[in-house]
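> run fold Ubiquitin thioesterase otulin
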Amino acid sequence: MFITLIVLMLDVFHFGWSLLSEEDMYRDADEIEKEKELLIHERGSSELGEPLVVLQGSFGNAFLTWDRGHIVSTGIKLSTLSEVSNDHFEFFDAFAQGYEEVSQKFTSIRRVRGDNYCALRATLFQAMSQPAELPSWLQDPELTLVRCRCSTLGFRTLKLPEKLISKYSWIKQWKLGLKFEGKSENLVDKIKESLTLLRKKWAGLAELRTEARQIACDELFTNEDDEYCLYEAVKFLMLNRAIELYDDKEKGKEVPFFSVLLFARDTSSDPGQLLRNHLNQVEMFLLAYAVCHTIQVYRLSKYGTEEFLTIYPTDPPRDWPVVTLIAEDDRHYNIPVRVCEETSL
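> ok
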């Protein structure tokens, strides 16, 4: 049996969520609400259905109406997707129910620009925009300054990138992101610059009040030069944490179970292979350990299973801040936003 899905070309998300263009990175709640009111005024609430859901998968963007546990046509036929089998219908149905579940706690979404840095972008933006002090791991002088012995000069101070590269020559295989291709960048200098910028920007944001901090964070993540430097810094912190975990495992120390699995793969049996084959792909457990944040992800396609809400790491320290993401296909991540933060006694 095949079912034809009708596409609505409406710029609306379920419960007021907005689908942005690729050029737009985030849209604030006021814009979303104004746009929703405008569309309702222009088309009439009956046309919009109650509520609307956006499903993004193998078949592009399909805007469908959610009605009592089923996906139904809205009756506005602007374009039609190719025929979809029952299996795919069930997949989309899981998406819709997943969005319905998320809507119980969140009221809108910040849509994140999709590329290879999507998970880093979503996680780092949310972490840096939270009203909190500068994380203790960024205050640690060992992050950028390391005391080591030089055979000719005695003790001298080196930054972390120099320390690691002097010990692990294979780090020189590091490839800077696409934004730095064609530029004659010195690897050590660029990573040092990136780490310094990360600490400087995060420290500056930590001093601001909530509203000003949000504005400053929005501006930071629309400045591509600074933005991609931050990602290089986080990638380096991920590699540094991977090296630490690998060394601990080799010494027989207790390590998180994910790191055992990480280095059990044929393509990442050691940190060198991890650098060459996987560092430019997201490793959510490693990302969580690198920035000391718990990352909880609503995986829409896994609705109805234990994997619907996945926590990275599985058993995080209680004092780690929490960031929440929505995964449409385990490759693209958006940020859910709530009007009123939940509290507990």
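The CA atoms of residues 185 and 237 lie 19 Å apart.
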